[in-house]
Amino acid sequence: MAMPQGALRGLLRRKPIEEIDDDSGGSGLTRTLGLWQLTAIGIGGIIGAGIFSLAGAVANEKAGPAVLISFLVAGIASAAAALSYAEFAGMIPKAGSAYTYGYVVLGEFAAWFIGWDLLLEYTAIVAVVAIGISGYFNDLLGFLDVNLPLWMMGAPGTEPKDVDAGSYKVNLFAALLCLLIAYVLNLGMKSAARFESVLVYLKIGIVLLVIVVGVFKIQTSNYSPFLPYGWGGAFTGAATVFFAVFGYDAMSTAAEESRDARRHMPKAIVYSLAISMVLYVLACLVLTGMVDYRDIDTNAAFSSAFDSVGMETVGLIIAVGAILGILTVLFTFMMGAARVWFSMSRDGLLPGWFAKTHPTRKVPTRITWLLGAGSALIAGFLPIAEAAELTNIGILLAFIVVCIAVIVLRYRRPDLPREFRTPLMPVVPAVGVVFSIWLITFLQWQTWLRFAAWFAIGLVIYFAYSRRHSLLNRR
Fold first, then answer.
1. SS3 state at 33
2. Burial code of 396-417, b = ≥16 C-beta within 10 A, e = fewer?
3. pLDDT more than 70, % of the chain
4. How many Cα neighbours within 13 Å face the side chain of 318?
5. Cα(244)–Cα(67) distance, integer angstroms
6. Which of 89, 154, 115, 152 shows the shortest CA–CA distance to 338?
7. What are the start-end ranges of the H helices in 292-440?
8. Measured by CB atoms within 10 angstroms of the end CB, which terminus of the chain is less buried, N or C?
């Protein structure tokens, strides 16, 4: 039976862009973030496990020294989406990022689809990164000869070969990390951003230490052969490291907490990606120059590289810095998930109870604690591989939505004032769409199955609750 015309119009109804201005509209959020705080949040989301472990794994298994090309290709593709995000961020200074942009341009159902998807993706990313940090933490404890009870060392079924099956009950450290980040976010955005900025500066300092000290240990013979796996290996590596070159999308959800979002958000998006890419490229050059790509430790690439050249103290500093630095990724993506959920609740697509903010700290505390608890459960009881499979598809779909939407709005409303304009329209957004679709083809069928199950749950909620309670429907 065909869908009634009125119901179809309901799915396509759009939030009027004229109603979106720089005022928070009594939402409860306060504008406290400046340009460099926003940039720090973006860098905090981009630079994380990607540089401390993923770079080594891709060099060892897929690309060799050409991991440099892998990051450059991924960075160019990510930049196409970043420029599209920057144009929207300069027009729509509201929380929600891709969800809000989709609501304005493509309609309510598209917005619901991407918002519901990002809730799962961002929460899963928090859990995956927490599990990864716990691995570094366990290695550090081993180095210090500290032994903790086995029951708290990992999720059930993740025991190494020398540990009896069933000994692991919960990854307690990973779960507590998720709750710690929820607590920090609930202190208020000003205090939380200060915490994030300190860790970002520490992380940048660690990466610069790697580059400045490691450059003197480079042996140019390690760069040959530069393409041991061919160009195919370099491009396959690009598909892998692409998931280390986004984070600005989650940062853009904080637009409503920026003091001058129309001017600062586009700059922060571009600056954070540019700074991160320079650090990625230089670090990759040092890593593959210090160690033959076949000998790179895929679990702790940089610290083990310095160990191999007799600089164990530097390796230990890098290991500790990696643990602290990767915390910023948890911060950025949990904040992103909270702001998407907040926006959906404020728009009536989810119960308004969630959109209530703390009376003095002006942050959505209810949502943040729920996200902290949800990510803690995933981190505590799921193996990292299963948790990671939840993180891939949603970001790529968000990129596709934003890149298409920026083209549509440019031609539908060319009169709108834009603080930043995506260059080479529509070529740049089209590159973002094509590259995202290409990367989606690398996803396994299990990922699609999990996504389909989550989407089915979302469909039930949308048609049973959201469509009728939407603020646009009430009008």
1. strand
2. bbbbbbbbbbbbebbeeeeeee
3. 90
4. 26
5. 13
6. 115
7. 301-308, 312-346, 365-381, 384-388, 392-412, 427-440
8. N
User: What's the pLDDT at 6?
Assistant: 54
Residue 352, C-beta contacts closer than 8 angstroms, at least 6 positions apart: 345, 346
Length of the chain measured in residues: 475
Cα 322 from Cα 300, distance rounded (Å): 9
Cα distances (Å, whole numbers) of residue 168 to 141, 153, 154, 161, 341: 17, 6, 5, 12, 33
Q: Which of 267, 458, 259 is nearest to 344 (CA)?
A: 458
* Cβ contact 90:420 at 8 Å: yes
What spatial distance separates the first Cα and last Cα of the chain, rounded to whole Å? 27
> Is the model more confident about 136 or about 70?
70
**Residue 109 has which token pair?**
């159902």
Q: Is the confidence at residue 91, as pLDDT, over 50?
A: yes
* Sign of the Cα pseudo-torsion (151, 157, 163, 166, in order): positive
Geometric angle at alpha carbon 90, from 104 and 189, rounded to 5°? 95
Q: Which of 40, 77, 50, 26 is nearest to 439 (CA)?
A: 77
Tokens of 234: 């370099």
Extract the tokens encoding 331. 């911060």
Q: Report CA torsion sign: 276, 278, 280, 282.
A: negative
Whether the pTM exceeds 0.70: the reply is yes
Tokens, residue 118? 């990002």
Angle between helices 312-346 and 108-143 in degrees, nearest 10: 160
Confidence category of residue 382, pLDDT binned at 50, 70, 90: confident
Counts for the chain of helices (H) and strands (E), in that order:
21, 0
Burial class (CB in 10 A: 0-12, 13-18, 19+), 9: exposed
